[in-house]
Amino acid sequence: xxxxxxxxxxxxxxDLCAQDDAFATQLADPTVxxxxxxxxxxxxxxxxxxxxxxxxxxxxxxxHEAADLRAVLAGGDAELAAIAEDELPAVEARxxxxxxxxxxxxxxxxxxxxxxxILEVRAGTGGDEAGLWARDLLDVYRKYAARKGWQFEEMxxxxxxxxxxxxxxxxxxxxxxxxxxxxxxxxVHSVKRVxxxxxxxxxxxxxxxxxxxxxxxxxxxxxxxxxxVEEHVTTAQGPGxxxxxxxxxxxxxxxxxxxxxxxxxxxxxxxxxxxxxxxLLLARVYEHERAKAEAERSAERRGQIGTGARxxxxxxxxxxxxxxxxxxxxxxHQLRPILExxxxxxxxxxxxxxxARRLAEL
Length: 362
What we know:
There is one protein chain. The protein is of the alpha+beta class. The protein has helices spanning 3-28, 30-33, 36-74, 78-113, 128-148, 178-182, 241-246, 270-297, 335-339, 344-361; strands at residues 116-123, 151-160, 165-174, 187-193, 204-214, 229-235, 248-255, 260-264, 313-318, 323-326, 332-334. The strands form two sheets. An eight-stranded mixed beta sheet has the order 2-3-1-5-4-9-10-11. A three-stranded antiparallel beta sheet has the order 6-7-8. Helix 1 packs across helix 3 (36-74), helix 3 (36-74) packs antiparallel against helix 4 (78-113) and helix 4 packs across helix 10 (344-361). The longest helix is centred in the N-terminal third of the chain and has 39 residues, at 36-74. The termini are close together.
């Protein structure tokens, strides 16, 4: 790495160490410790920095050790100089390896700070089978969240009661590393299988789209709810009984500056629907601003581990062959473990690939 670039990197790493110290101070504050949600959010941010901070402190320690050995070499004691000459190459190699490990951790640290995402699954082409596929994929994410110890909250689900499928679902997933992993899921997921409704055994291709939005903290997105947002409260639409359809509990919000709209009618409580609608609107406005900033910063830089376009096909699930083919990877994965929520091997490969790409851009 050229000296100016290396100095910028080292300056960035020193700033992150200062951030880590600030987080430690905040967590020691009884006021913060008593606020569970705030304490968890800060803990997730600190955990995201830990590999970078610890690795950089190891690197600095090795650099000091190497400097001491060079000082011995420059001294007048021939015996000590001989020992230092033997030890110096190994210490320098360890320092270099530590810095490379820090750089790999650094390119993931910002993603790992995001501890909450809103994930949307929507049935695409394929009729009833697309709804069944959306339901199955939603189950995959639910099982993976359980394996990871993440919280999985259904915010809104539009079910197809006739066949048991899902037309559209919005869920909130919270926990360490949710964005760095689930961001890879954004795009089109295609399935090739014989539908349950198929009488002649023919293989059909159906799709569903997945959107993954980092849920920002209130300080990340500033919305003037009085001036920028138009809110309408209406009766809910679709099945749900007399109370859902006759009582005005559905909340519809329009963010006027961007034209982004959300509608929430999942619960019978107007207040609960309003709170969920605000969270979803915040996430969508945040994603809108983030994508715009990404586009301005670099035409080649990808948004959600891709171009950011929701139409981008990311994965094909082939039931007849028992394999899953991710379009970004050369390797294939077994279908059954993935359907059981074991996405870890797939995520590891995607993370390794993305880390290499980002390192090349440093």
